[in-house]
Amino acid sequence: MNNRHASRRYERLYYVLSKRMERMALLLITALLVLLVIYQLLLLVPNMKKNMTSIDRLEGTPIQMQTVHEQSHH
Q1: Where is 60: in which H helix or E strand?
Q2: For each successive 10 residues of the chain (74 residues), what is the average pLDDT?
Q3: How far apart are CA 69 and CA 74, in angstroms?
Q4: What are the Cα distances from residue 34, in Å, to 23, 24, 48, 51, 63?
Q5: In angstroms, rounded to a whole number, what is the distance separating the alpha carbons of residues 11 and 38?
Q6: Is 61 left (phi over 0), alpha (psi -120 to 50) or beta?
Q7: Burial 11-20, CB ≥16 within 10 A → b, else e
Q8: In whole angstroms, what is the distance from residue 37 CA to residue 47 CA?
Q9: How far is CA 24 from the centre of its chain?
Q10: Residue 24: predicted pLDDT
Q11: How far apart are CA 46 and CA 14, in angstroms?
């Protein structure tokens, strides 16, 4: 009888903890998705994009722009 009581107590504790962890995991995933959307929206603002990422500075001048500028100078 005592073993059955301990088993039920363990199951109840497991259920409560797993529900709590599930809730926290869903909260974390939701928060990360919201932050991702905010970050992507901020990347649409040109001045913010310059401060947030270095990829535009590393890319250089696009090829189409180079050919347009070279043709206009000749």
Answers
A1: none
A2: 85 94 98 96 87 76 62 60
A3: 9
A4: 16, 15, 18, 20, 36
A5: 40
A6: beta
A7: eeeeeeeeee
A8: 18
A9: 17
A10: 98
A11: 50
What pLDDT shows up at residue 49? 83
Residue 43, both tokens: 């990347």
Q: Say how far apart CA 50 and CA 27 lie, in whole Å.
A: 31
Contacts of 50 (CB under 8 A, 6+ apart): 56, 57
* AA letter at 51: N
* Structure token digits, residue 26: 């869903």
> Tokens 């043709």 sit at which residue?
71
